[in-house]
Here is the input.
Amino acid sequence: MYICNVMHITYRITILLYFFLLPLSLVVHCQETDYTGMPDDYRQAEEEPVFFISLNAGPSIPRGTLSNGFKFRDSPSGFARTGVAADLELSYHLDPVFGITAKYRFAQFQQNESAIQADLSRNKIGEFTATVDPWRFHTVAIGPHFSMNNSSAFLNFFIAPAFAFASLPEAQLHSKVDFHNTDFSITHNTASSKGFVFTLGGSFKYIFNHRWGLSMSVDYIAGNLSFNGLEYQSPDSPFNPDFEERLNIGYSSITAQTGIFFYINQSH
Here is the structure.
């Protein structure tokens, strides 16, 4: 079932990339380099950008189990809302069509506190509030990219395995009034997980002067992270939590970003 869902989402992302990047590819294809002018202009036209350093940021939409909100105790629920992702990207063009891209991403997703509060306080008497830390994911990816380009515009497609690391957010359920008139809390202690995911995406880069440019990108990340040996703290009364000792969260998201890049030329 998980593989089928990933394949279905990947198909939808491919269609999204097609309609998003097709107009940009027409820009790349239709532009032509003008070699007329002074010798210095010709020499500059013979230089091609080969190394890029990009900083990008934008909204990230959680998908799959990361965005589910069924039960906080169960594995298929991450309660994540739309968050933000920031990337540091290094790209090197081995030739005009093929290159290598390395990318580091930090992504953060707030959780639905009201849904978690309702789930944790189920079958409990009293008034409750919940405080929950956000999801935070760190991802490092490296892999090939394929490029369509001319002297000022680059359309890249990128697919690669990635290494992901995340900490399970801490959650607390507070009781305002209980049998002993004190403030109790259930703490979902922080645990961490790491594993391999994959990323698929495309980007458009446009040079606006001799060293800088603007970029736009859209990508999809999918994988699974398992949090084992979880520990919980809670008073004996009136709470009786029945948490699982293992959580499996599918880290899946669709991200759209804009940013700037710096590049270095290389002469032919």
